[in-house]
UniProtKB/TrEMBL annotation:
Binds 1 FMN per subunit. Its cofactor is FMN. One of its GO terms (molecular function) is oxidoreductase activity. This is Putative NAD(P)H nitroreductase. SUPFAM superfamilies: FMN-dependent nitroreductase-like. Residues 19-177 form the Nitroreductase domain. Belongs to the nitroreductase family. The keyword Isomerase does not apply. FMN binds at residues 22-24, 53, 149-151. Keywords: Flavoprotein, FMN, NAD, NADP, Oxidoreductase.
Length: 198
């Protein structure tokens, strides 16, 4: 028996179960089915309740779904063309970047908006955005969605950030319904990761 199997209140068990159920799933393993708007809004609402020092709320999100993914496709192509890849001028390579946007039904940008006069160091604001992303991912899990946080060169490119009107882009959260069973995962025992001082 682990701590997560103990007799805790139902709400606590629900949260802990959702945390353990979260899975990183590659884009190619998502169904094309659209995610209902009210579900997307609930996921975003979970994001804005993330903790952050100084209550600066440094997160902003752009949601790409349905036909709106055409704009994301062009952002990917622009960012790739502005990068350093040897084939950045190749139309097939740019088309491959555009096609990427259509492989998942829901993309949420993770934009870092620092206050004009920062109260906190940037790393704290990045941590707050990461907390928002985790909140959204857990909420998505509770709705039966899976996905991953993508942060490759195109996804964090200053060109992509500028196209979205974001000072800094920390990647995108890609979500959808699983096309197959979820992978089983494990973690090292808690005892291996903690020191008690009592």
């Amino acid at each position: 028996m682990t701590t997560l199997d103990a007799a805790f209140p139902p709400a606590a068990l629900t949260v802990l179960d959702v945390i353990r159920a979260r899975r990183t799933v590659d884009i190619g393993l998502l169904k094309p089915d659209a995610v209902p708007r009210d579900v997307v809004e609930a996921i975003l609402e979970a994001g804005i309740w993330a903790p952050n020092h100084g209550r600066t709320e440094p997160w902003r999100f752009t949601v790409f779904t349905g036909a709106g993914r055409a704009r994301l496709a062009e952002v990917f192509a622009q960012a790739y063309a502005a990068g350093s890849a040897p084939d950045r001028d190749s139309e097939p390579a740019l088309e491959a970047q555009r096609a990427r946007a259509w492989r998942a039904p829901l993309w949420i940008s993770l934009e870092l908006h620092m206050p004009e006069k920062p109260k906190m160091p940037e790393w704290e604001e990045q941590a707050a955005l990461a907390c928002a992303a985790q909140n959204m991912w857990l909420a998505a899990t509770a709705f039966g969605l899976v996905g991953k946080w993508v942060s490759g060169p195109v996804m964090v490119s200053p060109v992509a950030a500028q196209a979205l009107g974001a000072p800094k882009l920390m990647g995108l959260l890609v979500l959808g319904y699983p096309a197959a069973g979820l992978p089983s995962v494990s973690r090292a025992p808690l005892a291996d990761k903690i020191t008690w001082v009592e």
